[in-house]
Protein: Response regulator
Amino acid sequence: MNTILLVDDDEYVINGLLKHIPWTDMGVRIVGTAADGADGLEKYRELRPDFVITDIYMPVMDGFQLTEEIHAIDPGVPIVILSGYDDLANARKAVSKGVHHFLLKPPSIVEIEFVVREVLQLLNESHERDELLASYLQQQDIVQRSMKDAFFRDLLSTSYRMDELPSTRIAFMGLPVMSTVQVLTLSLVRPDASARREERDWQLLRFGTGNIIREMLSESLGDVPHLTAEVLEYSDQEFVVVFLGDPVQGECSQKFILELSDGMLDNILQYMKLSVLAGLGTVRDGYEHLMDSYLESRNAVEIAEMNGWNRVYAYSGSDSSEPEKSVSMDEVRHLHDAIFQKQWQHAIELWSRLRSGMTGGGVPFPVCKGVCSGIVSTLWTSSMASDPQSDSPGFGLEESLLQLNRFGSVRQMLEWMDDTVARTIAQIREDQVGKKSHALVDRVITEYIEKCYHEEISLEKIAANLHVNRNYLSQLFKRVTGEPFVTYFNKYRIRKAIELIGTGKYMVYEISEKVGFQNSTYFSQVFKSITGYSPSEYDR
Structure:
């Protein structure tokens, strides 16, 4: 329903308009009234009616001044002048001020209805034009986005000559006719924990990731007029960002694009808790070379798979000419022999050497998988041989081989192999000596916890010093002691702290430092969680 503001200093006129005009029947509502032009302007700003009916001669501000002020805010607002003076000069002035109708007092109900309906028709036509234009622009935007998506997808997989590109289509999509192109590929890492999620949960994570990418591009590229970007959801786990730059200033954007890309990875990891493999192709001149930059970015992603997540790997042409690397079969045979002969330290050294060769890149993924499958089979056989009576050796062969087939990158597979090799060899060693892991845990307690409790030590550092896998040592420690390493370690430190409190010689912060806590507040929190008292309350 349209709204009207009535402005007149004659209360009798206002009341008459309110009581006798069938506003509701005409589809309008009186949203407010005002007694002078200044009041009318304030009411207009507050209520924003669709149009205004106003007298000319009023105190403070007349109708013409009010019309000027309203049109300064919104030039399209219809104004109807209602005046008791039959003055042709006023009518001319009203037209020059942008007034739509000029009614003489006292107007008849029929006259007012005629004028109001005419203004309403004008408003509705204007609204229909606005809605039609908005709909057209919206549809055009949807069509442009759809065309852009199809255009860039085509360029990622098909090579074109410059004269084969549709220049009119490029112009319609609002893209620069001449542009440099550079592709950033972001491949989301979907670990086993995510793979087991409901598909809907994964799609929500993917949707949120897309929003982060687009928001960062929108915010960051707003101040870089010579650089734009298009985002493609290329697959269920892959986003492709196409940077379009000014051919003259494109080289100036390289550092900026790398920093922006690193920022994207940080935000995706922070807010979506997802790791990303990221590869950046080189800058190319023209849309016809987009596929080249994309293939380079994919090559860089493959390097990321073998080296590290959550950082951008920029493509380096030096790698493209290098021959494909291979694994030394002699080293593989030596490793198998060392496992069968139970030369465990030698086996660990051989595995480390073999792993380094596969980690450096260049070794085909299927070759790496085949080598790892053979090592897993040999470890399983040796595990069975070390304890023939056991129905359940260190791991299940079939399950482990299936796990190997699920990995999508060399890096993931080698990390899993590190844990499997270390855990299996440690288990076989324990079975051989019959100590069931107690010796290793006793060593952690006596050589590190009891001797180095006042230093900054972690299970990761201890595992490195003992040449065992950190996850395996953590599980082993909890199984033997019944408590996680951190809990056991903190309890031992607190016992030492209680001994120092008993001497009465030290302040709380001094005791905190002496038992290895650098932050006295955190020390107090741990102390209370274990004893039920704060350090200052304990000896009272």
User: Anything to note?
Assistant: The two ends are 77 Å apart (CA to CA).
